[in-house]
Amino acid sequence: MMTAEPRTPSAIDDVAEKWVDTLVELSPVLATYIGRNEANGRLDDLSPEGHERSVQAARDALAALDALDPVDAVDEVTKTDLSNELRLQIELHDAQWHLRDLNVIASAPQDFRQAFDLMPTAEVDDWAVIAERLDALPAALKGYTETLRDGIRRGVVPARRQVVEVATQIERYSADDGFFAAFVADAGPDGGQLPASLARDLADRAGAARLAYDELRGFLTSELAAAASDEDAVGRDLYALNSRRFLGATIDLDETYEWGREELARMIAEQEAIANEILPGATVDEAVAHLEADPSRKLHGTEALQRWMQETSDRAVAELGATHFDIPEQIRELECMIAPTQEGGIYYTGPTDDFSRPGRMWWSVPEGVTEFDTWRELTTVYHEGVPGHHLQIAQATYNRAELNTWRRVLAGTSGHAEGWALYAERLMEQLGYLDDPADRLGMLDGQRLRALRVVLDIGVHLGKPRLEGEGIWDHDYALEMMRRNVNMPDEFRRFEVNRYLGWPGQAPSYKVGQRIWEQVRDAVREEQGESFSFKDFHKRALDIGGVGLDTLQKVFLG
């Protein structure tokens, strides 16, 4: 899928490459994510001064881009998309978003901890670098606390619900049997022992990291909780800004809310029809109960879950790579992992730029959850793996001939990536991989959740009227609607609602992204008529790499 001749880098490519280097310097956590291991001994400076340095760097990069003209179509996409990202970073800073940036899934407490999941551990030297990063944790958390304290002084604070939930997460990180204690207890290179001095350093620094997290928890439960907002909603202006952040597109929020209501009704009707196929005359709940009682569709324990994920993923890669997609050898490896946390959620991390670390699918299983239904989760493997996130993200990483480093490993939005993954789920249905009505019911369970997210997220944050009855959307009504519409353990439902409330605009990006992907495809198909090829469309789309959805539409539709 790469072009035959490498493209000559341009001045705009040079700005993009320098921006990647700048991000590696400013965000060692992000550097670890993309495999730039030279930054692995450090952590991000999230102090007020650190944020000022970051936004000034964005202003400088934007000025450099504004001074250049594109030399070809690749340059046009790079300039458009990187400029949009830099401007949005500046807007978010000016809106003081960083002063309230605390949530249950993607803020500094989780990001710092998760950075250790992706660090190399095979050699003694790798563990020495881990010790350096552990040593950096107290100062990094202190800087982050300074920023949140600055928010208190300015009256810019997160919702109290997020503060309380993150404090609970931290308690699990820092417990005697929590992440850091277990992490260093299992320390060691492949097939060997650590030197005694390094083992002591790791133990001491892990202990200091636990204390630092406990100090952050103390700040959260005292100072920040007292000052935090009673309101979960962020309001229309901040929501619109975050919606652009996660979509890379500007949408009509009110029209999207109404579309989400229609899409939710359509998903419910489709599920009801399939429930009748599974068990004639059954409701969706009765069909689900019937499937949950079927031992042949159940996995017991995380080891069985991991093994099933890997086997399912490997089979999809082999079969789709032989028929419907051109999958290069470098991206055929996808590791399925059980995450070392219990927060809930399933996520993907891309390969390093040199593919020395493959793409990985992670399943964070909440405490107490020991059984898993294959009919419910089959589509998740396709969503996170092939033809979903892994095919999309790893293909962009592979396309060195056309794309600069920023385009290959950093560009794009949640709406582009998650929208493609939902698009991929429907594609697998069309290709016959979900012919079993139970598996289709599981896919629709996920699609129904994503449609609900649109109305729930916009509903809460914009204060929309409830779907029925009096009052407006709030946490309790959101949880009630999750329980009515989503077949999953209540631990997952609670986590999901708290995630939406603390991460405004992200949850709808899945379904809205799918909508835009399908609109683009259908417009291209209408324009090309009988000459339209799904395979050619997908090839061109994946070769572009990650972009904002406004950019995607511009590339295909002008």
Report what the structure shows.
The chain is mostly helical. The chain has 2 domains: 11-243, no CATH class; 244-511, no CATH class. Helices cover 64% and strands 4% of the residues. It is built from 23 helices and 5 strands. Strands 2-4-3 form a 3-stranded mixed sheet. The chain has a two-stranded antiparallel ribbon with strand order 1-5. The longest helix is centred in the middle third of the chain and has 32 residues, at 196-227. The chain starts with 10 loop residues before the first helix and ends with a helix. The model has no long low-confidence stretch (mean pLDDT 94).
Q: What topology does this entry show?
A:
Blueprint: H1 11-26, H2 28-34, H3 48-66, H4 73-94, H5 108-115, H6 124-154, H7 160-174, H8 179-185, H9 196-227, H10 236-247, H11 253-278, H12 284-292, E1 298-300, H13 302-323, E2 334-338, E3 346-349, E4 359-363, E5 371-373, H14 374-384, H15 389-398, H16 405-409, H17 414-430, H18 437-461, H19 475-485, H20 490-502, H21 508-528, H22 534-544, H23 549-557
Parallel strand pairs: 2-4
Antiparallel strand pairs: 1-5, 3-4
Helix pairs in contact: 1-2, 1-3, 3-4, 4-10, 6-9, 7-9, 8-9, 11-12, 11-18, 14-17, 14-18, 17-21, 18-19, 18-21, 19-20, 21-23
Features:
mainly alpha; globular; 558 residues
Q: Summarize this, please?
A:
The protein is mainly alpha-helical and 558 residues long. The chain has helices spanning 11-26, 28-34, 48-66, 73-94, 108-115, 124-154, 160-174, 179-185, 196-227, 236-247, 253-278, 284-292, 302-323, 374-384, 389-398, 405-409, 414-430, 437-461, 475-485, 490-502, 508-528, 534-544, 549-557; strands at residues 298-300, 334-338, 346-349, 359-363, 371-373.
